[in-house]
Amino acid sequence: MKHWILFILFALTPFTLACGDHDGSMAQQGQGLVHASHISNDYHKQFPDPNINYNPNNPDHRGIFTWASTSLKGLSSYALTFDDGPHPTNTPRLLDILKKYDVKATFFIMGALADTYPAIVKRMVREGHTVASHDWRHDNSNNESRAVFKKGLSDSIQAIKKYSSDREVYYRFPYGAYARASNYHHFNIIKEVSAELFGENCINFAFWEIDTSDWVNEMTPKNIADTFWANHRGGSAWRFRLTANGYIKEPYTISKPRNGGVVLMHDIHKRTVDSVELILREASTQNIDFVLLKNVREFSFANKTCSLLP
């Protein structure tokens, strides 16, 4: 089986970044790219650059479009990623479905929930999935002080390391929100925490290219599955739009599918788990590949060691 990509352009829909129950606080993020120099084929482009002092006032130090997984484009190859869990009932059922179809995924889990549901996290690791950090709690990082963000990041990574011996350390900002704090830039703190925990640049931040909009309440399992397949082969899909009453879904057509990329989903929703069954059932009859982030070029750790310091 294989993966896919979609960019939601400002001209088509408001660019807001998804995660769990949206509240509108995450938004106005997408104006600039993050260092155009990183658009190269650099295998380590997902790490903060050790030679840059990131500035929240610099428009070139924000955005997510630069961080696309271009190596997946056109390959029918997808990295399924799930945010916000673990959930006590939905996540185990999702793990059952992934096991049924022999598909591995990357789970961006909350540090606090890892300690609440350790058996589920242990099962993720035991069954070959990658466990990654989605911070300690699901707070908008742009609204946190430097000290609060640093502690949450450090605590969440240490919590995950209690369960996983993988050298790969992935982190996803809640809501995809970063670089808008008033007096610091999150990438600089990521480098600080990495140096303190590992002694090297080891925290690989992960965004996405395909938002399934599964976090929008009105989405059905079929809506979510249709959006996945539209990103794969073109056709009718669903996206979100901000109104005075919150986020709503709206239809649109994808005429030029990316056919490969990092997929954003959320295992806290029953509708999402139901959609994964639909997606994997159909994918099992086609030449599609599902991979872990660590098997994607842009998320490679190459010769890094990345062991916690004693």
Average pLDDT, to the nearest integer?
87
Q: State the CATH architecture.
A: Alpha-Beta Barrel
CATH class: Alpha Beta
Q: Tell me, briefly, the overall form.
A: globular
What fraction of the residues are assigned to beta strands by DSSP?
Answer: 15-25%
Oligomer: single chain
Largest sheet, in brief, is: 6 strands, parallel
- Mind telling me the CATH superfamily name? Glycoside hydrolase/deacetylase
Rg of Cα set: 18 Å
Distance between the terminal alpha carbons, to the nearest Å?
40 Å
* Tally of individual domains: 1
Helix fraction?
25-40%
Order of helices and strands: EHEHHEHEHEEHEEEHE
- The total strand number stands at 10
List the helices and strands and how they pair.
Blueprint: E1 77-83, H1 90-100, E2 106-109, H2 111-116, H3 118-126, E3 130-133, H4 146-161, E4 169-171, H5 186-198, E5 203-205, E6 210-211, H6 221-233, E7 235-243, E8 246-254, E9 261-266, H7 270-283, E10 289-290
Parallel strand pairs: 1-2, 1-9, 1-10, 2-3, 4-5, 6-9
Antiparallel strand pairs: 7-8
What are the key terms here?
alpha/beta; 310 residues; single chain; six-stranded parallel sheet; 16% strand; TIM Barrel; two-stranded parallel sheet; 7 helices
Give your account of this protein's structure.
This protein has 310 residues and is an alpha/beta fold. It has helices at residues 90-100, 111-116, 118-126, 146-161, 186-198, 221-233, 270-283, and strands spanning 77-83, 106-109, 130-133, 169-171, 203-205, 210-211, 235-243, 246-254, 261-266, 289-290. The strands form 3 sheets. Strands 1, 2, 3, 6, 9 and 10 form a 6-stranded parallel β-sheet that branches. The chain is globular and about 45 Å long. Mean pLDDT is 87; it is low at 1-18 and 20-44.
